[in-house]
């Protein structure tokens, strides 16, 4: 997650920053990894603030919503040490 993406999500009604203890949701910070809906990610992409994408962790059904080229434009490499993923 990037700060810009998190702020964008809050602005469209998907507040990922605010903790929600009753759902055991700690709130996210820039640098955290989180799964978001393909539609919300695509909206952020169109608005110029898409979050980085780990393609190896992205389900193929995402391609029904998001063009592969868009995902590839924001891909990040999977590190050799997967312990931090």
Report helical residue fraction.
25-40%
Q: What is the alpha-carbon Rg in Å? A: 13 Å
CATH class: Mainly Alpha
Query: What is the strand tally?
Result: 0
For the termini, the CA-CA separation is 13 Å
N-to-C SSE string, H for helix and E for strand: HHH
Short characterization:
The protein has a single domain (3-84), classed as Multidrug-efflux Transporter Regulator, Chain: A, Domain 2, CATH 1.10.1660. It contains 3 helices and no strands. The protein has helices at 3-11, 38-46, 68-73.
Layout of helices and strands, plus pairs?
Layout: H1 3-11, H2 38-46, H3 68-73
Keywords for this structure?
globular; 85 residues; DUF2237; 3 helices; DUF2237 domain-containing protein; Multidrug-efflux Transporter Regulator, Chain: A, Domain 2; mainly alpha
What does this structure look like?
With 85 residues, the chain is mainly alpha-helical. It has one domain: Multidrug-efflux Transporter Regulator, Chain: A, Domain 2. Helices cover 28% and strands 0% of the residues. It is built from three helices and no strands. The chain is globular, with a radius of gyration of 13 Å. The two termini are 13 Å apart. 12% of the residues are buried.
């Amino acid at each position: 997650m990037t700060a810009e993406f998190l702020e964008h999500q809050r602005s469209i009604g998907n507040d990922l920053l605010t903790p929600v203890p009753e759902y055991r949701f700690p709130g996210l910070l820039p640098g955290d990894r989180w799964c978001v809906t393909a539609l919300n990610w695509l909206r952020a992409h169109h608005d110029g603030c898409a979050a980085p994408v780990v393609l190896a962790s992205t389900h193929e059904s995402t391609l029904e919503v998001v063009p592969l080229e868009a995902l590839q434009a924001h891909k990040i490499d999977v590190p050799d040490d997967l312990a931090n993923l």
